[in-house]
Amino acid sequence: MSMGGASPELQELSQQLQELDAQQNALEDEVESLQDEQAEITDAVSALDSLETGSTVQVPVGGGAYVRATVDDIDEVIVDVGGGFAAEQKRDDATETLQAKRNTLSERIDEIEAEIDEVSAEIDEVEQRAQQVQQQSQQQAMQQLQQQQNDEQ
């Protein structure tokens, strides 16, 4: 949309569209981040289900580096319980904790997707209003042009 000579209302609508678009992108990024976290939890649950005492695993030590380690006791698992805290739990309890976290993430994703739908509907409304304003502006310009031509005759 060209802003040269555009009405103040059209400029305001354009600004609203930019803000709504940025809001929608931020919400979509948040959903993607939560989905990544969900996938990590799913992987962790699968690992807990398949690992046995004595299994060899690769443990991240930071910076993209891993060391091989042997699982001494798969029956006790340390799980992030939120707020920067971790707790040692039995394997089944750890799995339940992780599944509860995954369910909470699913609920949050659903909430954000509903917000995205609301923002998208608002974008549609603003776009329609902008089209109406632009059409009205064009009609007024045409009427003024016709009036000038009639006055010249």
TrEMBL record:
<feature type="compositionally biased region" description="Low complexity">
    <location>
        <begin position="9"/>
        <end position="22"/>
    </location>
</feature>
<keyword id="KW-0963">Cytoplasm</keyword>
<dbReference type="GO" id="GO:0016272">
    <property type="term" value="C:prefoldin complex"/>
</dbReference>
<dbReference type="GO" id="GO:0006457">
    <property type="term" value="P:protein folding"/>
</dbReference>
<dbReference type="GO" id="GO:0005737">
    <property type="term" value="C:cytoplasm"/>
</dbReference>
<dbReference type="GO" id="GO:0051082">
    <property type="term" value="F:unfolded protein binding"/>
</dbReference>
<comment type="similarity">
    <text>Belongs to the prefoldin subunit alpha family.</text>
</comment>
<comment type="similarity">
    <text>Belongs to the prefoldin alpha subunit family.</text>
</comment>
<comment type="function">
    <text>Molecular chaperone capable of stabilizing a range of proteins. Seems to fulfill an ATP-independent, HSP70-like function in archaeal de novo protein folding.</text>
</comment>
<dbReference type="Pfam" id="PF02996">
    <property type="entry name" value="Prefoldin"/>
</dbReference>
<dbReference type="InterPro" id="IPR009053">
    <property type="entry name" value="Prefoldin"/>
</dbReference>
<keyword id="KW-0143">Chaperone</keyword>
<comment type="subunit">
    <text>Heterohexamer of two alpha and four beta subunits.</text>
</comment>
<dbReference type="InterPro" id="IPR011599">
    <property type="entry name" value="PFD_alpha_archaea"/>
</dbReference>
<feature type="region of interest" description="Disordered">
    <location>
        <begin position="134"/>
        <end position="153"/>
    </location>
</feature>
<feature type="region of interest" description="Disordered">
    <location>
        <begin position="1"/>
        <end position="22"/>
    </location>
</feature>
<protein>
    <recommendedName>
        <fullName>Prefoldin subunit alpha</fullName>
    </recommendedName>
</protein>
<dbReference type="InterPro" id="IPR004127">
    <property type="entry name" value="Prefoldin_subunit_alpha"/>
</dbReference>
